[in-house]
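worker-03 picked up job from queue 'complexes'. Input manifest follows; two sequence lines, order preserved.
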Amino acid sequence: MINLLRILKFGVKNFFRNIWLSTAATSIMILTIFTVSVLVMLNLVGAMAVETVKEKVDISIYLQPESTDNQINQVKNKLLSLPEVKSIDYTSKEEALREFQQEHQGNDLILSSILELDENPLQPTLVVKARYPEDYAVIADTINVDEYKSIIGKIDFDDNKEVINRLTNLTQTLKRVGVGLSAVFGLIVVLVVYNTIRLTIYTQKYEIRIMKLVGATNNFIRWPFIVEGVIYGLVGSIGAFAIMYPLVEYFSPLVSNFLGEQSIDMLAYFNEHIVKIFLFEIAAGILLGVISSLLAVRRYVHSI
Amino acid sequence: MPKSKKDKPIVAFNKVSKIYDKYRQEVVALEDIDFSVAKGEFVSIVGRSGTGKSTIIKLMIAEEKPTEGQVGVLGWDLNKIKDRQVPEFRRQLGVVFQDYKLLTRKTVYENVAYAMVVSGQSVVKIRKTVPQVLDLVGLKDKGRRFPKELSGGEQQRTAIARALVHKPNLLVADEMTGELDALYAWEIMEILLKINQMGTTVIIATHDRDIVNKINKRVITLEEGRIIRDQKQGDYLL
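worker-03 finished. Artifact:
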């Protein structure tokens, strides 16, 4: 316990001994963790946008007005037998009329026109949702055959596939760029912290030599430098978090406006996962700090 | 009749050679060194510069390993000692150097306490031991001074106090009076003699002829890396 407290004290002293170097190392750490966090957030926004668009895609199958229940069930059963189909929502002619009337409430001209007709001109509809965006084409092809031509009037395949593909590609590119950038920044931070600790070791060469001569254990000599690395990580991650929060708060409404219908509340997500995000940043910072200091200590303390 | 554990030497060099490899050239620092030091002895290792005195000290404190032969100190086989065991070994002996090796930003008290701090001793023990050793070396009233406020002799006494905090059975000193004038050098020797009288074995490497002749203790003389003389109560004859 005494040793642990002394190691912590020595580590804190190391951090403050070369305050400008420590500031530089901490700044790079903040920049790295901040960049990684932003990239993670962007990926998240991208993924959420894709999901939102996916949710909105469907196939509307307009059946002939004179289709019998038997025929409708025939199409329905065929669709249900497909593994690609997630759900089917059936709207009868009557329901379609009610919806139409509700939609055009207040527009007397349209409402009176439809009432003047002898019979309900609207078609019963099957709204089909697929499990994956690429399944819509398969579903459309399956029912767009001669067997059902007499039952099906029109297949309206609102092709959002292109949008989804673009968003998916964007998200994947973002992920790849994110991983690459994170790796580059990670490497930079490891190099900077490694060199900072190496310099600390060199400036304390004389003291380390004395420690060795008077019988300090290897762990007692090494651990303060590892503690120093942990402090860089800790301060860096707290700093990154402190910058991140107001930025998310500022950009969240802008992102929501930009995505329009596919409204994504980044701030709500951030607040909901605030502990996880904070812990992730702390863990990333400490990991980078420990890796750098371990490398420096293994390489230089032994040779003194 | 086999020797009892009590008679076992504190230091034993058995046919020790040390060859350094400098710029791919072999430099023989020590050759066929054979001597032992019993508990309670005071030994001066003398010789001109470059004769291997410091190499013997380095081998004795496990800073170097012999190229050939066996080195045993305080019951440790230094040929086989592992890196992680060295700190424990070093806490059993005290080492003093010519350049004092004091931390300039720490007071005398802190410098002496430092050896105990880094080896995990409790604050209570530190507070009890440090004043005792400072008293022993005559620095009881100078605990709050910084090294630069002290004379060379006082700085060396601080270094001796630091070497004594672990209550070692063996004190090793390398040219410890090298930077001191005659008066301060003799003050230091008097402290070492006092420590020796209290039961600590003392080994010094020196080329200070006057001091060695004055104390009239065992003298091992080196020349070109070999022992040329080992006198029980001798003089520096070179």
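worker-03 released lock.
Residues 58-157 of chain A form a domain with the Alpha-Beta Plaits fold (CATH 3.30.70.3040).
Strands of chain A lie at 59-63, 85-91, 125-130, 152-157.
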